[in-house]
Description:
The chain is of the alpha+beta class. It has helices at about 10-15, 25-40; strands at about 45, 55-60, 65-75, 75-80, 85-90.
Amino acid sequence: xxxxxxxxxxxxxxxxxxxxxxxxxxxxxxxxxxxxxxxxxxxxxxxxxxxxxxxxxxxxxxxxxxxxxxxxxxxxxxxxxxxxxxxxxxxx
Length: 92
């Protein structure tokens, strides 16, 4: 599967496609997702709505790379504050 198939999709769409996802791509996606969550948690933010629909997949033209972006911060909560409203915000 080439990166061209990933452009403009979310992780849920990729999983639903029933396409065999190569292990190296799964590793890249998971590594970036975990790193994004680590950074968020380091800033005291808890996403509270991590799901395939909120993991956006991007591949810059002719780069051969997959980049994920965590989206939909509508339920984000700061560990020290009340519920924050940041709907439709994208990080990454």
